[in-house]
Amino acid sequence: MIPVTCFRAQRVALFGLGGSGLATARALKAGGADVICWDDHQAARDKASAEGLSVADLTQQDFAQYQALILAPGVPLTHPEPHWTVKRAQAAGIEIIGDIELFCRERAILAPDAPFIAITGTNGKSTTTALIAHLMRVARFDVQMGGNIGTAILSLEPPVAGRVHVIECSSYQIDLAPSLAPSAGILLNVTPDHLDRHGTMENYAAVKERLVAKAERPIIGVDDDWCRAIAQRLMAAGRSPVEVSVERVLPHGLSYENGFILRNGVKSFDLNGIGSLRGAHNGQNAAAAIAAVQSLGVDDATVSRGLKSFPGLAHRMEQIGHVGSVLFINDSKATNADAAEKALLSFERDIFWICGGVPKEGGIAPLAPLFGRVTEAFLIGQASADFADTLGPIPHRLCGDLDHAVQAALAAASASDATHPVVLLSPACASFDQYRNFELRGAHFRALVEQLPGFTPMAEV
Predict the structure, then answer these.
(1) How far, in Å, CA of 188 to CA of 243, rounded?
(2) Which regions of the chain are under pLDDT 50?
């Protein structure tokens, strides 16, 4: 835990007692703050009370008595309209901040030069965060990883000289962190997302920009218009962002081409054969990660060794293993067509595609240019009938659920004349018709595959 001392002996209000909110309340209390907590849900309030935290109905409180409102990232700050606690705090003239901001203030107190790498982007930020943490561990650094991935930031160990904090940041968290100024700040990409919480793309991109605006080493993917504009603004301000592209070779910066990372146009790192970093989207992730760790002094040989040993993340192009020549990939995190596109682009042919669930707007129609890579599709869940219509002449079967789809896909892949067939779970759908979340869907897929006769896990291949 990182005790938050910047509010020692001061009274603060905290709203939202989910995972990160509860961790923040604990950290504030440990640092000597008088923190008054509230949540709309009785179970969350009961859990906080059982831990000895002070719980009081903030609707009945005078916000002028508080130094600050600490807001959980899931609570609306601006759109579709400010939460009632935000309106009360604004009326009282007190600041509204979140857990990332509290970390930044404690780092400034404890170890202002301690390495701090922050990562954001619409897509790819979790893989990039995990890869950076892995590379830094291979380089024998003391690494703390968390934020929007896994562990709440204030549940990590405190900043000290030489300890690296690798933190994934959502737009919601950045919006509540006005002093965010990491050692290296990564902005991977900006595409439409979370507009219900930011109102417009302009607002959303502006929030993302804050992560790199004050970073010592800003690293920006420049393959979309929003990020290109952000990079140009930084350069106009006299900054020198490291640019990353997978669409063109950059004379200065890092690029991805045909499985290689190029530095200033020269092939420097080979991703070919690294299954956990398959595809151009992972080329972007890897290039950004390399720029970040090398800004902290990690050498090329260590980076190469770390890239080859990176295990990847569960449910994100996760290589489970083989049955004979058939490779099974768990990409359950692909809950929309854009994410599934990255998976389909990772294989040129011989894909036995398991997809379906609760469809998003547009279904899989945007993926039509990639259907030629699919040997056969195995459809599950609510979207099955619609996806069958979209697939048209592409061979497909209505399997209903994963149990039947795995068996059918294995039989078809094993009977094919493909040299390297791939059974790919990349649903392009939410999971809520059959599973509570994509993690449970992916875990079920993994369990089904591991029970297949002749299954060989990746570690033994």
Answers:
(1) 10
(2) 461
